[in-house]
Amino acid sequence: MWDYFDDVVRLLGDGVRAVRWDQRGCGRSAGDGPYTIARFIADLDAVRVSCGVERVHLLGHSWGATLALRYALVHPERVASLSYVSGTGVDPDSTWKPTYAREVLRRIGADAPRWQELESRDRTPGEEREHAVLQWTTDFVDPATARERAEEFATPWWGINYVCSAAINGEAKRFLVDNDVPALCRSLAVPTLIVDGDRDLRPRWAVDSLERSLPDVRRVTLAGAGHIPWAEDPAGFRAAVLGFLASRDGGAS
Asked: In what residue span(s) does the AB hydrolase-1 domain sit (predicted)?
């Protein structure tokens, strides 16, 4: 997907220099493949270098949380802190996925037949956006405002790179299966903040093993928030992230 951190940057305020980008092959980025995590890590490092800084505070959301963690494992000396927001943990069996799939259908509710019909076939560009909006409503807790919030995320609509998604998700899965990731995390001397919304349809227990593995970790769970916690508890999200950054400011930009 594309960068959607406008609200996060506004929440963090002028005291933080925030740098964002559209990842390779996604959104406004014209970059083609290879769609590999190594390439995405190198792209992230290229952004760091272009900013002229040696160490950064990394904040990643959802897939971005996975990417930020992988970057920190490869380049811990370049990371002052890691904020891991709404990630899905390091379980090699992805045991959270059946719960997630059930919750998607439950939260879509009356629109589930339409979403399933779109999910089952090729879609026009307009149907691609409709399909995404229906699914993204499940990332928000309040059904009265979920559709409006999902529409905001889809505006402007840049399209989803499904080729990239399949390649990256497949590689991420293989990494969890082929490596003892909790053991790798136990040696990661990077201060880490885990931020969850307790109503995220991706069950939060999926992240428990990651929390247990990290030697320097703080976890904040925001009550009543879903997968996009800054949208539903902006004050709580701001306090968690800025409080963490203030306690971990080590000369990074």
From this structure: 3-231
